[in-house]
Amino acid sequence: xxxxxxxxxxxxxxxxxxxxxxxxxxxxxxxxxxxTIYGVPGIPITDFGRMAQGAGIRVLSFRHEQNxxxxxxxxxYLTKKPxxxxxxxxxxxxxxxxxxxxxxxNCWPMILxxxxxxxxxxxxxxxxxxxxxxxxxxxxxxxxxxxxxxxEDIGIGxxxxxxAAVSGRPGGVYLDLPAKLFxxxxxxxxxxxxxxxxxxxxxxxxxxxxxVDRALAVLKGAKKPLIILGKGASYAQADDQIxxxxxxxxxxxxxxxxxxxxxxxxxxxxxxxxxxxxLRESDVVVMIGARLNWLLSHGKxxxxxxxxxxxxxxxxEPKEMDSNVEIAAPLVGDIGSCVSALLKGMSDQWAxxxxxxxxxxxxxxxxxxxxxxxxxxxxxxxMNYHSALGVLRKVIDERPDTIxxxxxxxxxDFARSIINMHKPRKRLDVGTWGVMGVGMxxxxxxxxxxxxxxxxxxxxxxxxxxxMEVETICRYDLPxxxxxFNNNGIYRGTDENPSGGSDPAICSFVENARYDxxxxxxxxxxxxxxxxxxxxxxxxxAMESGKPTLINAVIDPAAGTESGRIGNLNPQSVVSKx
Length: 578
Fold this sequence. Notes:
By secondary structure, the chain is an alpha/beta fold. 40% of the residues lie in helices and 16% in strands. The protein has three domains: 16-194, Thiamin diphosphate (ThDP)-binding fold, Pyr/PP domains (Rossmann fold); 209-363, TPP-binding domain (Rossmann fold); 377-554, Thiamin diphosphate (ThDP)-binding fold, Pyr/PP domains (Rossmann fold, 3-Layer(aba) Sandwich), CATH 3.40.50. A six-stranded parallel β-sheet has the order 3-2-4-5-7-6, with helices on both faces. A six-stranded parallel β-sheet has the order 15-14-16-17-19-18, sandwiched between helices. Strand 4, helix 5 (91-106) and strand 5 (110-116) form a beta-alpha-beta unit. Helix 2 (21-31) packs parallel to helix 8 (154-166), helix 13 runs parallel beside helix 15 and helix 17 (385-398) packs parallel to helix 23 (532-545). The longest helix is centred in the middle third of the chain and has 22 residues, at 355-376.
């Protein structure tokens, strides 16, 4: 044998440097600047979680996958990068699926990564451990779904999931990881070469010049214009451009719930306190990152009045246009580019709206704010929603960097109109679906992703969906103050069993429950507050200390209305009682 042949043989016999699926997935995530994973450990992803943590990725372990998924969803909203939720197979995957669909509905980038059974067993339905065709189930409920079968495809699979989640209209992506994938080995150098760094995953989409001109022409003809800001405008992080557009145009703006704070609620052009008037009387409505769905009565009907309207709509998704009403000036592109184009097209001589319109809006606003102020001064015991939320409004006014998480029925609806927001992306709530149970996952992710204090204001019913995560809050020692508005039931604590039987009514809870004891059980601070003064002191102390805190705010059981302010969505029986 030649010298060259001997050398080649010796080289071939040398031990190869190997990598495997575990490390390739971790390396692919790190290459794409993914720093945090939210999830619940178990078969077959426990070791993956340990290895990811060991490799410097922050891995947050929850008590339930849906809460971890809600955390990942809101992380995507706050960062514009896909939030990652990691679950076990079948039941764990299904638990995370609600959050994935929630993220997709709200247009937030999220990736649900779930371990799964092997394809050959699933396809023959041979009864594997937690056997389920997860990819097929996920596809209708998210923006995209992929399965990775071979270690050499991990880099491209992760890259495709990231790009799908954040490009165009963002949304949820499912990534299926069969158990055998994790242990698949390959040459380390080849594995490193197979990884993909995603370049420009969400490129700017510039609006067509003629579309910009059309929108400006419609605006110039307006006598009673209105700008509606949706959470898409908040997600875009085009804060300076949006503020410049509002102030240069002089048009009153109405923020949807999670867009509050894009411009301060106390801004002179804010029309929040004259919502009914501006929706009813406006003649040109500019929609920025907002959709004419049920939250805006689909753009028609009694709420919108009889005055003829023209709509200018900014959205990155062309199919959103004309979804409910005719859009006179569709402006397709990313929000930052579209708003910048409108600003550029406005001349220095741009005329503000007629003074009569601004005066009409301000007159109603002042009247409604005066009525609200009187209600907030109520110091009655037990507290009602206005007196308790008046306290929390003062807390946020004094600490505008605090992130407010809010869910419930009455707790959500009253807080939306009472608590002023002063900075963008500081109000996080139930989003488009109005889904219950997002509170604790959202609060945890908000704390992790921003480092800010979090105030989570929860109805007692909403808190029940994710309340066990107070242990997670204590375990990670997060600066989260949870306030549970406890009125002994769903909507109200006065519901009665119509049969007269011994079972409690369907909307009633245990009377005088002490949710604060839950936080104490895990080493946090628990406080029972029965008056506005007690509530104010307790929240202030929590904000100052940064300690995990839960305040049981005792609310009048008779306070509140059926289904908050959307009781009209409840069907009514036409059959009379006999």
